[in-house]
Amino acid sequence: EILSLSFLTKKDVNLCPLKYNEMRFRLLHFVFFFVFMHSFAQYKPIDTADYAQRKEFLNQLKTKNDALIKSLKSRYTGKTGKELEKFYREFYKDFEKEIKDKDYSFNSNFKIKLEKILLNLKKKNPQIPDNLNILIAKNNTPNAFCLGDGTFVVNMGLFNVLDNEAQVASVLSHELAHYLLDHTLKSLVNEINEDKDSRSIMENLKKVSVNKSKKAFDIVKDNLYKKRGIKRKREVEADSLGYVLFRNSDYENTEFYNTLSNLSKYDTISPRELKIETYKKLYNLPSQPFKDSWMTKEDFGNYNYDHYKVKLNKDSLSTHPELAQRMEFITKQFAELKNKKEAKKGDEEFAKLKNTARMEVLPNLWHSEQYGRGIYAAMQFLQDKEEENYYHEWLGKLFDKIYTARKNYNLNRYLDRIEPKEQSESYQQFLSFMWNLNLAEIKNIADYYNKKGAS
């Protein structure tokens, strides 16, 4: 909205021209500063009501999916071919539902940036095909993955942990390598064949009469180790080819290593500690004084951890190779990566994307109905004195959802239970606080912040 300063005249203020112009300039500066700050404080989450783009993508997806199924049926016959066709038809239906549920953004600066990165990689790597699509997922996990049909999904959360465009390019290079190496299809074929093997194994297990449970466990363990070994091998292959694609481009080589290093520090729940003072500052309300009893934690001193100890070696069953091992492997294979360099700071365009990804943390948690984690994140942002009006408003909305869930006896769906040894002490304290609040107290907090956000 354009604000006019025509009400300010020399006659009204009776000033000399210099002072008049100075006051006019200061007032103009103040107005634009106010408008800028007001618009920034009123940050609006990325709009996913991009119906036209969504419809066009779904049409393209169906065409590509049908073509892929036709190709697979010519390559694989019998049981394998039928299972692959069944998988991709079911996959399309599930993926279509996610897209219609607005889990993805089709019209955003993230997509523009990633398409630019893809173009840069293709210039020096002619083996990268043209018919590729990029989707931006409203997900805070710093992850990306490749579908067998040439569709790449990149989570917004990736921008929260990476430093610059080159690091995003390294992740995209890794996923392009998966695609070029046909890893998705190979994994599916392995799963189908293992399913056949599993049925044969179970038939033989029925004939075992002694130590059947131990035999069954050994079978499961062997299969898991085998599957994880295959996945590890493919991740290493994707790192190797991905780095070659990345190195061929104009990006700084060492940023590939820096990317793995950054991702290795990620934790699903932020490890940043919430201070007790933060609780008291946020929840000592005029109509509801803070209660120390809210911070009471359950005593897990007698918890029998050994009873639930996992029998399988944790490292051997990692979904992906430990990033430390991948970093070690890539530096052994490519000697130039042994010369570590500090990550470069992203440019202004990248900084804006990082800021948007940060502001989207709460909308994304809201979209995925992770209301408890949303409150925890909002409290951390407020502890750091970030965009207080924005996060106060989110506290009101999120506590409203927690209130409704508590009232309907389904709070477990939206708020984690405490899991000893699996969560940080800070997060366990937060969960204790949330579970200690009664229905009326939750409602008071929700009402207070809803009014504060509206003011």
Major sheet strand order: 1-2-4-3
Shape: globular
First-last Cα distance: 20 Å
Query: What is the number of beta strands?
Result: 4
Tell me the fraction of residues in β-strands, as a range: under 5%
Task: Give keywords.
455 residues, mainly alpha, 4-stranded mixed beta sheet, 18 helices, 62% helix, 3% strand, globular, disordered N terminus
Polypeptide structure, described:
With about 450 residues, the protein is mostly helical. Helices cover about 60% and strands about 5% of the residues. It has a four-stranded mixed β-sheet with strand order 1-2-4-3, with helices on one face. Helix 14 (about 360-365) packs antiparallel against helix 15. It starts with 9 loop residues before the first helix and ends with a helix.
Please sum up the structure shown.
The protein has helices spanning 10-13, 17-41, 51-75, 78-100, 109-124, 158-161, 165-180, 183-205, 212-248, 254-264, 276-283, 323-333, 348-359, 361-367, 371-383, 388-407, 425-436, 439-454, and strands spanning 104-105, 133-137, 144-146, 151-155.
How are the elements arranged and paired?
Blueprint: H1 10-13, H2 17-41, H3 51-75, H4 78-100, E1 104-105, H5 109-124, E2 133-137, E3 144-146, E4 151-155, H6 158-161, H7 165-180, H8 183-205, H9 212-248, H10 254-264, H11 276-283, H12 323-333, H13 348-359, H14 361-367, H15 371-383, H16 388-407, H17 425-436, H18 439-454
Parallel strand pairs: 2-4
Antiparallel strand pairs: 1-2, 3-4
Helix pairs in contact: 3-4, 5-7, 7-9, 7-10, 8-9, 9-12, 10-12, 14-15, 15-16, 16-18
